[in-house]
Amino acid sequence: MLFLRPLMTNRQLFSTVSTTATLKDIVAAATTVSLSSHRKQIPANKDLVFGKTFADHMLDVNWDSKNGWAAPEIKPYGNLSLAPSATVFHYGVECFEGMKAYKDKSGSIRLFRPDMNMNRLFRSCQRLALPEFNKDELLKSIEQLLLIDERWIPSERGYSLYIRPTAIATQESLGVGSSSNAKIFVITCPVGPYYKTGFAAVSLSATSHYVRAWPGGTGDSKIGGNYACGIRPQLEVAQHGYAQNLWLFGPNDNLTEVGTMNLFLFWINKAGQRELVTPPLDGTILPGVTRDSILNLARTWGEFEVIERPVTMPEVIEALKEKRLLEMFGAGTAAIVSPIKNIGYKGTDYAIPLDPSDPTSQAGKLTKRFADTIMGIQYGEIPHEWSVVVKQ
């Protein structure tokens, strides 16, 4: 009889190679601060370009398998020093998060559901055999960074400070295996609204020629490789006038994600009931924070059915022909929601309804409602437990 040994957690895995009884965890209170001697000029809000200008400081935390996590450091934004043999360069052992800080009308700093970002970064690290960490303590260190660089958080509604926590393997050796050294660093950049002039519905190219993720892969983790593989497909469809790919998978052309966002459909099912539908978290779908927020809001409203189930492209076409499809949109941190107006599939373009009551609208009523509600929570205009105030 074959007996399978239970899988070890990362902490158990690394403790087997540690010479110490207990590896140190991240402790926010131990954070050291080295302030920049040069304060950069912050661009005017109207001139902000996503991911182009970075704040004065960054957070840096190192780990090794003998000691665990070192004290977090807040230091001037600058280059990393890594060996050419570092594991991250050769095997792509890297994951990251995307979150934002907002200023409310009173000037307080707010984060939107930061616990979900910490949970997802933790799971992504586990998937890559990167070291685990105390999620609450890492978040406290990030909050310290935000307080130091508070002047970089725009106060105008629609603007925010994008936060990019990243974990990488830094072991200096070639060989596929768990890394004996790692690093978490956090950089930030001020960003404006995704749409400069309001919603702009996008056209998609439904493709199964390229595959973003597959069962048992890393589609449910926020790993750099998941995004790298989508660059060439995006460039190819852009040549034909499409903004992004609509990723299909399997023999039935199941919908998965749109570009780098989760996907939603609002339609009338064959029984005549209104439904909000999104593909299930089957291991190929990233569990988005905005995705979860939309599902929770919709279930709280209780105005229509909320379903997580597989949906195929032929089902979408059938619903269009029967005039049952009401709206489609992508959902993610950058845009909150991104309305979809057209899908190219097997040589045919299919027009997706927006708002039939307003021919000039670039978003359906439900799509816009989700955007307005979530943004209201993010800026503290709508009281909600999801909006967390960073305390001085």
Defining key terms:
392 residues; alpha+beta; D-amino Acid Aminotransferase, Chain A, domain 1; D-amino Acid Aminotransferase, Chain A, domain 2; 2 domains; ten-stranded mixed sheet; six-stranded mixed barrel; globular; disordered N terminus; aminotransferase
Describe, in short, the structure shown.
The protein has helices at 10-15, 87-91, 114-127, 135-148, 224-228, 231-238, 289-301, 313-321, 365-378; strands at 32-33, 57-64, 68-69, 73-76, 94-96, 99-103, 109-112, 160-169, 181-191, 202-207, 244-249, 254-258, 261-268, 274-278, 305-308, 325-332, 336-345, 348-351, 387-389. The chain is an alpha+beta fold and 392 residues long.
**Which structural class is indicated by helix and strand composition?**
alpha+beta
Spatial shape: globular
Strand and helix order:
HEEEEHEEEHHEEEHHEEEEHEHEEEHE
Q: pLDDT under 50 segments (min length 5)?
A: 1-6, 15-20
Our measurement of the CA-to-CA distance between the termini, rounded to an integer number of angstroms, reads 60 Å
Tell me which CATH architecture of the largest domain applies here: 2-Layer Sandwich
> CATH class of the largest domain, anyone?
Alpha Beta
Range of strand content: 25-35%
Q: Mind summarizing the main beta sheet?
A: 10 strands, mixed
User: How many domains would you count in the coordinates?
Assistant: 2
**The CATH homology group name of the largest domain:** Aminotransferase class 4, branched-chain amino acid transferase, N-terminal domain
Radius of gyration: 22 Å
The number of helical segments is 9
Kindly state the percentage of residues in helix: 10-25%
Could you name the CATH topology of the largest domain? D-amino Acid Aminotransferase, Chain A, domain 1
Mean pLDDT: 94
How many DSSP-defined strands?
19
Organism: Physocladia obscura
Enzyme class: transferase
Cofactor: pyridoxal 5'-phosphate
GO molecular function, one term: branched-chain-amino-acid transaminase activity
